[in-house]
């Protein structure tokens, strides 16, 4: 099993440090293997980026905060867009999927005999 670890996800997405990433990693690994068809031997890196993407979408950050006359705005590492385009981690995942000819949609396996 070539899945990733929380430490490897934290290394690319430090804003997730201290969060329990087990479920995100499990879901990402399943999708990478079963929906995108990436071979298990090459699944670690795409799993890492997809898990970081899913966990980043789950982070709720304040977008604006005012204290007296000072105003601060925060971003949630969003790169704009929707779906996998919404985070830099999702964008990297899509780039990796292009290596496997999967594009931005899960592949459907079909065998005709």
Describe the structure.
- The chain is mainly alpha-helical.
- It contains four helices and two strands; from the N terminus they run H-H-H-E-E-H.
- 42% of the residues lie in helices and 7% in strands.
- A two-stranded antiparallel sheet has the order 1-2.
- The longest helix is centred in the middle third of the chain and has 15 residues, at 44-58.
- The mean pLDDT is 83.
Strand content: 5-15%
Shape: elongated
Q: How many domain modules?
A: 1
The tally of helices reads 4
Helix % is 40-55%
The unreliable regions are: none
Rg, Å, rounded:
16 Å
Distance from first to last alpha carbon: 30 Å
List the secondary-structure elements in sequence, H or E.
Answer: HHHEEH
Strand runs, count: 2
Judged by helices, strands and strand pairing, the structural class is: mainly alpha
Q: What would the average pLDDT be, to the nearest integer?
A: 83
- How does the major sheet shape up? 2 strands, antiparallel
Main sheet: which strands, in order across?
Answer: 1-2
């Amino acid at each position: 099993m070539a899945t990733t670890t929380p430490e490897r996800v934290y290394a690319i997405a430090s804003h997730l440090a201290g969060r329990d990433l087990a479920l995100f990693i499990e879901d990402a690994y399943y999708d990478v293997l079963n929906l995108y068809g990436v071979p298990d031997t090459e699944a670690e890196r795409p799993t890492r980026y997809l898990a970081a993407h899913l966990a980043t979408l789950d982070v709720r950050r304040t977008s604006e905060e005012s204290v007296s006359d000072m105003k601060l705005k925060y971003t949630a590492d969003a790169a704009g867009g929707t779906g996998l385009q919404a985070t830099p981690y999702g964008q990297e995942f899509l780039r990796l999927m292009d290596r496997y000819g999967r594009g931005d949609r899960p592949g459907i396996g079909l065998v005709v005999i």
